[in-house]
Design goal:
Radius of gyration: 13 Å
Number of helices: 0
Strand order of the largest sheet: 2-10-9-4-5-6
Order of helices and strands: EEEEEEEEEE
Largest sheet: 6 strands, mixed
Length: about 120
């Protein structure tokens, strides 16, 4: 059974930073491209970054390029998202997912609120 458990969300001021984590189980993590996805209040799901199996580099949407960094530790089945210089409009629930299933299967999510 696939399980994805996100953590690390919280309340942060604009310009602040957070590091999200995701622990994966129930599948061979090291063989899957992985992604971070978010859903802002009243809006649809949006993928924001994905990373290949080797963990060398990531692909980002333009809105987060240069501020967010996706990474992974295949030995620990962990996926991470370092988020810097957060903006108020990035308040959302953040999910990790297999890249190929991000629209249909995700963890329970972690709430990120960016507010002063």
């Amino acid at each position: 059974q696939v399980q994805l458990v996100e953590s690390g969300g919280g309340l942060v001021q604009p310009g602040g930073s957070l590091r999200l984590s995701c622990v994966a189980s129930g599948f061979t993590f090291s063989k899957q491209y992985m992604a971070w996805v978010r859903q802002a209040p009243g809006k649809g799901l949006e993928w924001i970054a994905f990373i290949g199996t080797s963990g060398r580099g990531g692909t980002y949407i333009e809105a987060v390029e240069g501020r967010f960094t996706i990474s992974r530790d295949n030995a620990k089945n962990n996926l991470y998202l370092q988020m810097n210089n957060l903006k108020s409009e990035e308040t959302a629930v953040y999910y990790c997912a297999k890249w190929k299933e991000w629209r249909t299967s995700r963890g329970q999510g972690t709430q990120v609120t960016v507010s002063s």
